[in-house]
Amino acid sequence: MLRKLFLIVPIAVLAIGGSTACATKKFVQTSVGEVNDKVDSLGRSVEATQERTRQNEGKISDVDQKAQAAGQAASAANDAARQAGNAAATANSAANAAGSKADAVDRASRRLIYEVVLSEDQGNFKFNKADLPDGAKQKIDEIVSKLTQDPKNIYFEIEGHTDNVGGKEINKKVGMDRAESVKQYLYLQHHIPLHKMNVISYGEEKPAAPNTTKEGRAQNRRVVIRILA
Predict the structure, then answer these.
(1) How far is the C-alpha of 121 from the C-alpha of 208, rounded, in Å?
(2) How far is CA 172 from CA 108, 164, 201, in A?
(3) What gap in Å lies between CA 223 and CA 61, rounded to an integer?
(4) Where are the domains of the chain?
(5) pTM above 0.70, yes or no
């Protein structure tokens, strides 16, 4: 009986050992299969990602090319705009030059019909002032009323003058401000077209009397209006 027991135990051990070995082998095979599946899946995912990357790179390249083309087109458009602007500026300068030349020819062909002087010694412009006094406005009104033809068809030359007190640049500006005051009055009150009037400032350069006396300086602070027809 004991001998039979000894024989049964090894056989049972072998059976258990063999069963465990088979189970382990099967587990390993299953695990390896799962790993291989995951590796294959991962490989396919990597390939898909690489393909998408290649496609995206192609799209990016297309966008870059289009952007570059658009930039070149914009640059060409800017160049064309600059050229057009330069051409317009040149044409405008030529037109202004032609207009100035025509005005000069027009003035040269006209004759002086009236001249009026608005000076401080006659109750007009005050020292260092450009405001048009009522006395000056009245004189301008009288001159315009004496015109026998349409004031819009004649030409006005307006000169601003000062004494020699102060700097030359300041006097130049004061003279221009006085001439502009007369021009604005003629335009607003008598509707003289602006292109029919020319203003210039001589400042202290053309005195009508010596600047050595108070009376002489008062005479030099003046505006001269010449009417040409």
Answers:
(1) 12
(2) 25, 10, 6
(3) 73
(4) 1-109, 111-228
(5) no
Q: What is the mean predicted confidence (pLDDT) over 185-214? A: 94
Here the tokens at position 51 are 């393909």
Q: DSSP assignment of 137-188, as one string?
A: HHHHHHHHHH-SS-GGGSEEEEEEE--SSS-HHHHHHHHHHHHHHHHHHHHH
Residue 5 pLDDT > 50: no
CA-wise closest residue to 203 among 219, 217, 221 = 221
pLDDT value of residue 2: 44
Q: How many CA atoms lie within 13 A of 126 on its CB side?
A: 6
- CATH topology for 111-228 is 60s Ribosomal Protein L30; Chain: A; (3.30.1330)
In Å, how far from its chain's centre is CA 52?
Answer: 46
Sheet holding 155-161, edge to edge: 112-119, 222-228, 155-161, 197-203
Q: Cβ atoms within 10 A of the Cβ of 225, count?
A: 22
Question: Distance between CA atoms of 158 and 73, rounded to whole angstroms?
Answer: 52
Dist CA 52 CA 56 (whole Å):
6
The pLDDT score that the predictor gives to residue 27 is: 61
